[in-house]
């Protein structure tokens, strides 16, 4: 049974159409990435899927009692606001010290409990946000451009962590991203959005689709190789781009 299904969903802000005729579903354990240019409706689609924005027409169905872990696009933390990682992990739902400690370790920031949130680097902060989302033992993890501002190795290791989390916790992952260079081949399925679904399929199918190339140009072919090394047999591209090997 699908975790979430959107059926012929159209959605507006005021009178401006943002999404039109979107059909979408996500199955348990899948990693699905939604890509699209700025303003193409990616965050809006996430908001609709979690129930924070109602469609104008069409229907969104969530599995009864679905546990969703949401990692927002950004979270402003005031520099002068004293808030430790440990306290943040218990907002709004209280978790035990042991649970918090174990989760921080799992996402690669072991021992960070007493650090101030405002003092963390971008990559450490994203991991703390992920830990907080995972503490609810989600069946689906939704992340809205979680690697914004991270450097290339930071992005690659964050996505690697997501793959590990999917394997160990078995949750589905729905990711919004414009990090085309590394994101594509970590996904079971890629959806290319521009107000409507332009194309979708496996990373390699989407990267070759004329609709995708019309939106993003031809220039990403070589650099998208980063993660494909994890999937033997799918490397049909040019390896001469000087990319890193994970
Ligand atoms: N609360 C709102 N009120 C009015 N318009 C909005 C609102 N939120 C988003 N929009 C508009 O809806 C469109 C889609 O926005 P959305 O944030 O979903 O795009 P996005 O694909 O996530 O963009 P980005 O990659 O820049 O984050 C944009 O034109 C945006 O200006």
From TrEMBL:
The keyword Ribonucleoprotein does not apply. It comes from Profundibacter amoris. This is Metal ABC transporter ATP-binding protein. Signal peptide: none annotated. Residues 4-219 form the ABC transporter domain. Keywords: ATP-binding, Cell membrane, Ion transport, Membrane, Nucleotide-binding, Translocase, Transport, Zinc, Zinc transport. PANTHER family: METAL TRANSPORT SYSTEM ATP-BINDING PROTEIN TM_0124-RELATED, ZINC IMPORT ATP-BINDING PROTEIN ZNUC. CDD domains: ABC_Metallic_Cations. GO terms for biological process: response to zinc ion; zinc ion transport. It comes from the Bacteria. The keyword Translocase applies. The lineage of its organism: Bacteria, Pseudomonadati, Pseudomonadota, Alphaproteobacteria, Rhodobacterales.
